[in-house]
Amino acid sequence: MSLNTFGHLFRVTTWGESHGPALGATVDGCPPGVALAEPMLQHWLDRRKPGQSRYTTQRREDDLVRILSGTFEGRTTGTPIQLMIENTDQRSKDYGEIAASFRPGHADITYWQKYGIRDPRGGGRSSARETAARVAAGGVARAVLADLVPGLRITGYMVQMGRLRADRDRFDPAEIDRNPFWCPDASAAAIWAEHLDDLRKAGNSIGAVIEVVASGLPAGLGAPIYGKLDAGLAAAMMSINAVKAVEIGAGMGAAELSGTGNADEIFMGEDGRPRFSSNHAGGILGGISTGQDVVVRFAVKPTSSILQPRRTITLGGAETEIVTKGRHDPCVGIRAVPVGEAMMALVLLDQFLLDRAQTGGARGPIG
Amino acid sequence: MSLNTFGHLFRVTTWGESHGPALGATVDGCPPGVALAEPMLQHWLDRRKPGQSRYTTQRREDDLVRILSGTFEGRTTGTPIQLMIENTDQRSKDYGEIAASFRPGHADITYWQKYGIRDPRGGGRSSARETAARVAAGGVARAVLADLVPGLRITGYMVQMGRLRADRDRFDPAEIDRNPFWCPDASAAAIWAEHLDDLRKAGNSIGAVIEVVASGLPAGLGAPIYGKLDAGLAAAMMSINAVKAVEIGAGMGAAELSGTGNADEIFMGEDGRPRFSSNHAGGILGGISTGQDVVVRFAVKPTSSILQPRRTITLGGAETEIVTKGRHDPCVGIRAVPVGEAMMALVLLDQFLLDRAQTGGARGPIG
Amino acid sequence: MSLNTFGHLFRVTTWGESHGPALGATVDGCPPGVALAEPMLQHWLDRRKPGQSRYTTQRREDDLVRILSGTFEGRTTGTPIQLMIENTDQRSKDYGEIAASFRPGHADITYWQKYGIRDPRGGGRSSARETAARVAAGGVARAVLADLVPGLRITGYMVQMGRLRADRDRFDPAEIDRNPFWCPDASAAAIWAEHLDDLRKAGNSIGAVIEVVASGLPAGLGAPIYGKLDAGLAAAMMSINAVKAVEIGAGMGAAELSGTGNADEIFMGEDGRPRFSSNHAGGILGGISTGQDVVVRFAVKPTSSILQPRRTITLGGAETEIVTKGRHDPCVGIRAVPVGEAMMALVLLDQFLLDRAQTGGARGPIG
Amino acid sequence: MSLNTFGHLFRVTTWGESHGPALGATVDGCPPGVALAEPMLQHWLDRRKPGQSRYTTQRREDDLVRILSGTFEGRTTGTPIQLMIENTDQRSKDYGEIAASFRPGHADITYWQKYGIRDPRGGGRSSARETAARVAAGGVARAVLADLVPGLRITGYMVQMGRLRADRDRFDPAEIDRNPFWCPDASAAAIWAEHLDDLRKAGNSIGAVIEVVASGLPAGLGAPIYGKLDAGLAAAMMSINAVKAVEIGAGMGAAELSGTGNADEIFMGEDGRPRFSSNHAGGILGGISTGQDVVVRFAVKPTSSILQPRRTITLGGAETEIVTKGRHDPCVGIRAVPVGEAMMALVLLDQFLLDRAQTGGARGPIG
Fold first, then answer.
1. Are C3 and D226 in contact (CB under 8 A)?
2. pLDDT at A93 over 70
3. Any chain D CB within 8 A of the CB of B70?
4. Which of B80, B111, C110, C252 is such that its CA lies 20 to 30 A from the CA of D291?
5. Which phi and psi angles does B89 have, rounded to 5°?
6. Looking at this predicted complex, what is its ipTM?
7. B200-243 pLDDT tens trace
8. Which residues contact C150 (CB under 8 A, 6 or more apart)?
9. Is C21 an 8 Å CB contact of chain B?
10. d(CA D357, nearest CA chain A) in Å
């Protein structure tokens, strides 16, 4: 986790700007012998691809990923895997206004202040387009996890749009792929659709909350103190564009609980493994997985690129107004769902490898 | 951020168990020539020290810190600084029950499952006692920051206990040191005191929300993508014992905002520097500091060690009940305040050094 | 320095196989605002390019480098720089024999044993072709160093081929670019030419010693203990294909010296800076640069791909003989010269940034 | 490998100065469940301890190591192991002269120039005393390796003192522990004893070459490119005080070999594993172990602290002479033998864990 690299052992370095010739991810430390081919990665990229409904940006990006290295005859060799996505829709529009003033809520001003130079085309490196590379790399991680942790399932979905929350009593996992919001509550999705139409027409945008769950993870992944599984997940999710908060299990709600209310009591399951009366811990105790579902939520702020004029300053320090024209996501949280899943996959695989290094995968027996 | 080490350039490795002979922190990468002496660190440790009010554990730990290396004639030499705190209150009580069964909400079960061995005395490495070493190391970071970022102020305080929230309209920074809860709202503190007395007598505990603010930080610290300042803060705070959520600026509330409501509009200040109409961003855009206050909040779950019996299992897999006797914090969030400040100091100094390495501290001019 | 990544702050991850579609380097942590364009990198790649004399492989590789990211209008932006070199000469020859048995002296057998899979085409990842990516990345480092350490000069040359040593009394830096061996001793170069012709005709190969010198480096780069400048250089040079030894200053010869003979006595130079009576230390004391020339030497073993049959085993464990046909370098040390220079540049820039982080570039005054 | 930390997964951070209250090593990432107690570490420290013959410094240092954390009931818990050695012989002599001028060949001048401050007492952090902490940490690594790689043997010995080389035809491993030079050639040891007596009486010192061999290491440890096993060994050995060169296998001599002479031809051994006709490669091909003996040599320069006056400068820039009084090693190479062994252990364990992480310990079958 250093500048553009994520992970300790399964290390992903993303590179590339929104409007440069290409972007991608350099994946180092991948276990050898894992079946890997471009369609396996394209599958995940297609889920993130814009322009799939009227609720995401109408930019056309095919986001075709190529594997340039690290495989031989359809299997990983253990050497670096270079994933490249060429930018096909680099519309050579005039970006003079963006270059001359700072869009509120964007990284324009901070990149400028830090580096004294910035690539204004489409936000350059700070564009959410970088997350395409994460999804591609996450696809590699998923392929490896399929070998190493059979039974693991990673599922992301939206649980809140603005003030409108999905109803957990109505959750049906089968619904997630049936609406444009990855929402497991079909009736919430219908309400959100209407709400988002209104916002979109008003040139406005809205925030969202995403939940990502990993089921089937064995106990024992993670580490004490700074290598905690939850600390890794927090960094991973907070590193996604526009994310402002990360919760594990009960999350902020844990502050409202009493000790008796919060305790996940422990029993023996019929399969001879511990089971818990509840999962306020979100599947993690002391930074180490319990074997329960690992549950992470994160809040995505509303897209800062909106059609309503906002006050700002120019590079020269003059006060002015700006309207961010272009094709933007009214709820960027929608497309954050596959990204959150990808980050979960990256964290879990990295932690799996760290654990295998230190313990050899041995586990303390219970019962 | 790897197992027991925090930081990229200012690297802190904490070590030691709750009931071993000593614990401490090995601090590497400290800039040379900084004035440093034990009383400067003791100052911060004394704030975290237990037994200061009836609302924290009555364990007696003097937590006296010694500097074993890395200074000469009262100044840092640029070589590793070893900070050691001897454990004086290692009451040799019988820990047989804890060793034989797993306390719900504690890391007992996950340490056992991962390592196949655990030090049951006082929670061993998973004890909140490890945070004493963080506070000591944070003291070193503060001494360095005093030289490198004059004007920087780091302030932590409690904003919520259970469902009881402090009222921001009543915030008075001077109150923070005047009540046992580090609460800037005196009237909230009074209510909390009563509430916590009830919980303590009932053998129960309660969660809390802590806010840590850094004022006077220059723009330009942090980095894009995985080295984001907010990603670093998220990992830092989530690594603290019992923390279940981290928020930056508007935090989870950002999900409820519209694009117009969320935008921090930009103006020119009279000092020739940008100022903002609001700070939903929490002082960070695109992972890089804006020069506004950096605002982080985190939720601390209620202490899992409570006097009310909880159901659990033994090492042998038998179901049983457990009561965690001993001297515990009814609201462990109280003592998390100095720890959150320490983590903020560690993150900011590390990011300062990373930025100085890459940019030399140069900044893009505005106006 | 972890698998395929080199460096702490200026981090280079190389990727790609000899006969894949492309190879390259992902450069992270580059300072912003540095002038950078493809011809600046191509300059160094052309020096390494094969087929320039009859003493290097006759493979045709144009080694054209493209910058895919990290620059805007000819300057670095501080974001990752992706350097890609497409492989144009992927002759689709039959590699069945290489795939079925292990070439002695090559990594064939160890890659197989470690990974259980290997890309046999041209040696795959273990091919010396990977060094093209290092040279490209080294070109970026040189561009940055030109800004940060004006006056720094990095020069590599060959000082020994087989048992034939160049004569230091005849060294003329101007000669280095005038012969195919980068030899500063013109008469040695003439003798080597004859010797190498004989070896080449006999289908044999020969080892070499390369020396790389950095002049104009300020005192104070490096760090104590494991971050020593010489430890970094040792790892850097030893990581180059076929290198079997690394020397700093007097090198192995230091073992033969007495304390009086080895001491580099110190005087004050007329420029008010320390100067030394000699440089047995190779410009490094206690892991930190003295301001003298940094002098590194490394030994390159003879190319293992030779036309004379060698005994080996097959994948199935049968004993056999192998002749490595193809277009090989009779003295692979020749092409290691630009690679050694590139590694020197990578180490020095990384150390410069590390030092700037910790000390801010301040220096203790003398006199 | 960053400042004072060595290793990727088995991470050792040494700390402490020659004349401070204590020094030690913080060991993170240790596998759990390994039997470990202080006498196991003391065994190795006693081999390095000064004052054991008239050929090493007469300083009295008991070098008693304490384990402050990371074990429970005699076994490692997987948490950080703190090893502390108190400095008992901090003779409070006047170090004014050393503080005021720079000893040639020492790090005095570079520490001063880099940091603007240095601890002059006994060389402070640059003292060879730091290697005691390495030996202690190496002892932990050996304990782990005994579990993970049964049959591994690490043996260090001196092969050259000044110009006097041991005769490989006379090597008898049993001799190593029988003379004060760890020399496997008894007759060489006798000659060296006489030679060193003369040097010592003359107030002079001498360099040496140490060889460290690891037998019984499985094939497959190490990694391509920058994670090469030999690159790690080079950094490890070069990080030892006074080391100026590192060789693997044929080392510098590889430069003199032809391709036919250098090839280690491969056969099938009777045990069904590959064997090699020779070991010019030093047990490493392409950065990965072959299963042969891993052979490393390093040159140690003569002690710079000698009784003959050397010319130098003062802090104020005046030219002067200095004589380094005190109790010094006439051949510091002698005490480097246990240190080289310790570094070999650290590298091998770290590489074992890295390999286990990536490949799970699987191996490609031959035959």
1. yes
2. no
3. yes
4. C252
5. -105, 65
6. 0.96
7. 999 999 999 999 999 999 999 999 999 999 999 999 999 999 99
8. none
9. no
10. 4
